[in-house]
Amino acid sequence: MALRERSFTSQRRNSTTMKRSKANFETWSWFFMRISGLILFFLALIHFSITHIFNDVTTTTVAFVAKRWANPLWRVFDWLLLALGLLHGSNGLRFIMDDYIRTPRRRAFAKALMYSLATVLFVVGTITIVTYKGTL
Amino acid sequence: MSTRSTVYKGKTGQWAFVLHRISGFLILMFILLHIIDISTINFPSVYASIHRLYGNVLMRTFEVGLLFGLTYHALNGLRVIMIDFFPGVIKNEKRLFVAMLSLSLLLTVVGGVIILKPFFTGKV
Fold this sequence. Notes:
The complex is a heterodimer.
Chain A: H1 2-53, H2 62-69, H3 72-100, H4 104-131
Helix pairs in contact in A: 1-3, 3-4
Chain B: H1 12-39, H2 44-54, H3 57-85, H4 93-120
Helix pairs in contact in B: 1-3, 3-4
């Protein structure tokens, strides 16, 4: 019984290996967009409300940021927004590039440029949030 | 290109998709700009002069546009998630699109009044 079961699963694994490994990345990408989108729904709207609705944008001065970042939880909040926003956004831009850039070489070039830019900005943003020593 | 060459017939689902794409792209462009402007926090005078621009009426209008992009993308994203995870929702896909678009417009108008008010009351 057990033997038969094992042979069945291994057979199934063999027959779908090619298909599955090919579909895997896009499946995870699809899932990631839903989960990160759901988290960003709250993070982005809360962030916008704080900086544009409950406070006027002209009051978001250096002192304002220093006061907020005195609490490490706000740094975590902002870093999550940075990381998820960039990942969700660049993955979305990847879909757009796949749709509209038709030649493989241009597509590869555009994506390389985008990944580099996103990486640089992720590093710059992370350094800004982590290393800031505000003086109140 | 003739209109016949596309399979799309301009129904709600297509407009929901087009708006989602455009708003997503514009939000990403703003994130890139925003990371740069916040990174000047260690140079307070540079930060201050950039942030004075955000109080400008032109930038305030742009922020209202950003609010529409954000609320639409967020709410339509919820619609997409609902369609993906709950099979019955597809039947109400059109009504849901109208609801999400209306809600994002409403939030934009309310938020827009708050964002633009300082300009009309002469505070900036």
